[in-house]
Design goal:
InterPro entries: F-box-like_dom_sf, F-box_BR-signaling, F-box_dom, KIB1-4_b-propeller. By secondary structure, the chain is mainly β. It has 7 helices and 28 strands.
Length: 405
């Protein structure tokens, strides 16, 4: 019997134990093996989720290669990132683009000039283009124009808000969150100087304005989470106001009112939102700016996360209560969609931790960080993956869950 003649049931059994990259190699051995495992998902056979960290490139957006670090692979150096997966010859998919989001096995990329998002699976090379973000309608807080010299975008309502064309994308568009990785889902973008929401619904040819209120109390959105069971989005602002809305941007429900905090107003704090143990939770992340002039001899700065706190919402009291333990779960925050993983699902990750990647107010190739690592809630200690004093981190790192779906 030749390798290509092995029973299909045996191939299914073997493939069910493989790491996702080994599964990729396995399916490429021959046509019969590829056909045998192509229906694994339909048969209920799945590769276990394996969180990867997208690493920066030495040549930035001119790269044709994506390099990842797999957190589930044990290494000799506890906090090293020596284990890499490289996917090359991706010029048509990533050249001149940066990642502005991720969901499951897909990355959301965005170019500088046309502002056209694409969702892309680096394992299968499947790609879906979305309408340009320039189609977001004008409103009383958003009207972006290009000046006569074609060098600056500016806001006619707030003329002091002028941005170099080269960095406009990176300071104006924060994150894209999706309900599904196909043309049948809804995408939400956080955009603008005051961080508003816009939506792209199935079959839409242009983006539409997202929920807000007439008094602008709900601006400065910082994170959006899609609740798959409820089929609606939850969004949180800088001052912890939370609202929910359906896939059409309608049926808006104000979950938690805005709470002004003077410390938050004048500090570098960002909120993330998710659900865990059936509770709505908020992850507060505080960073500090570090002057590298004494180390590097120039005026460069970097950012380092110095505090992470977790709270759950008590709906009846409309109050945020601190959480000290995530049990066997860990959270992943950054430019990606916020998600959680159980230790038994991805055995290589550390339980009761918050994994974080770069995600600051203004990020551009000239003002970037290498702020990626995890915070251990039990020991209350930080562990950093990247050396913040070394080469620039561009494009910014992002969490990614590889998948063939």
């Amino acid at each position: 019997m030749t390798w290509s003649d092995l029973p299909v049931d045996l191939l299914h059994c073997i493939s069910s134990y493989l790491h996702i990259v080994d599964f990729l190699y396995f399916s490429g051995v021959c046509t019969s093996w590829n056909l045998a495992v192509s229906n694994n998902a339909l048969l209920g056979i799945h590769c276990s989720p394996s969180p990867w960290l997208l690493l920066p490139s030495d040549v930035g957006e001119a790269s044709d290669t994506l390099t990842f670090h797999d957190l589930t692979i044990q290494e000799e150096e506890e906090d090293g990132v020596n284990i890499h997966y490289r996917f090359s010859s991706l010029t048509d998919y990533i050249f001149g683009r940066r990642c502005i989001g991720s969901k499951d096995g897909w990355l959301v990329t965005l170019d500088k000039m046309d502002m056209q998002p694409r969702i892309f699976n680096p394992l299968t090379k499947a790609e879906i283009s979305l309408p340009s973000l320039f189609t977001i309608p004008e409103d009383k807080e958003h009207r972006i124009k290009l000046d006569e010299s074609s060098e600056f975008y500016y806001n006619e309502i707030h003329p002091n808000y002028a941005t170099d064309v080269e960095i406009f994308r990176d300071v104006y568009f924060r994150k894209i969150v999706m309900s599904s990785n196909d043309q049948f889902g809804t995408a939400v973008v956080i955009y603008g100087y005051i961080k508003l929401l816009a939506l792209l619904r199935p079959n839409d040819k242009a983006w539409v304005l997202g929920p807000s209120d007439q008094n602008n109390k709900w601006v400065n959105f910082e994170d959006v989470y899609y609740h798959e069971e409820e089929h609606r989005f939850y969004a949180i602002t800088h001052f912890s106001a939370v609202l929910a809305f359906d896939l059409s941007g309608q049926n808006v429900e104000f979950i938690c009112p805005r709470k002004y905090d003077e410390d938050a107003a004048y500090s570098e704090i960002m909120n993330y939102i998710a659900f865990l143990f059936g509770n709505l939770i908020k992850i507060e992340r505080e960073v500090e700016y570090v002057d590298l002039s004494k180390i590097k001899g120039d005026e460069s700065m970097t950012v380092k996360t110095i505090r992470i706190s977790i709270f759950k919402l008590l709906p009846d009291a409309v109050a945020w209560i601190p959480i000290k333990d995530l049990g066997d779960f860990s959270l992943f925050i950054g430019c990606n969609q916020t998600f959680s993983l159980h230790h038994t699902v991805a055995p290589g990750i550390r339980r009761n931790c918050v994994y974080f990647t770069d995600h600051v107010e203004n990020m551009s190739p000239d003002e970037v960080t290498r702020d990626a690592g995890y915070f251990d809630l039990h020991s209350k200690s930080f562990h950093y993956f990247l050396d913040s004093d070394s080469q620039p981190n561009w494009p910014p790192s992002i969490w990614f869950l590889p998948s063939f779906s």
